Amino acid sequence: MRAFTKLQEAARRMRDDAITVYFVARDPRTPISVKLLALAVGAYALSPVDLIPDFIPVLGYLDDLILLPLGILLVLKLAPEDVLAVSRKRAREALAKPRSRFGVVLIVGIWLFCLVSFGYLWWLR
Questions:
Q1: What does DSSP assign to residue 81?
Q2: pLDDT reported for residue 67
Q3: From the CA atom positions of the chain, what is the Rg in Å?
Q4: I want to staple 38 with a disulfide (CB 3.0 to 4.6 A). Which of 8, 25, 48, 110 is the partner?
């Protein structure tokens, strides 16, 4: 149980750092090289194309588990201290905002609709 708690804490820190990278990239005081690195890390995170395809067992997700945290860490290390402090503060504020119940209901509704539709089509088969 203790390992699961540590894993949750690491995931929470990674989420906070990813949002911090977003704010670092948007700050006008951030050097262009750091902005480009942040863009590359974000693009890799959202890209369906990986260095090692995800369908390869274990190794497919290993590149995501190594490259993304290293990219985020590198952006945070290269960002100017004042920009990093402001970006961390903005990330904490963004995470503290309440979430829209309507948005949550909408997303859950879409997933349920997709699940029911898939089940119905499978049943007709």
A1: H
A2: 85
A3: 19
A4: 25
3-state secondary structure of 121: helix
Which pLDDT does position 49 carry in this prediction? 72
Q: What angle do CA 6, 43, 89 make, to 5 degrees?
A: 55
And the tokens for 110? 């879409």
105 token code pair: 């209901």
Task: Look at residue 101 and give its three-state secondary structure.
Answer: helix
Query: What whole-number distance in Å separates Cα of residue 71 and Cα of residue 38?
Result: 8
**Residue keyed to tokens 């902005």:** 35
Please give the Cα distance from 39 to 45 (Å, whole number): 10
> For the chain, which ranges sit under pLDDT 50?
none
Each residue's pLDDT tens digit, 43-59: 887 777 777 777 777 77
Tokens of 38: 């942040």
d(CA 59, CA 101): 37
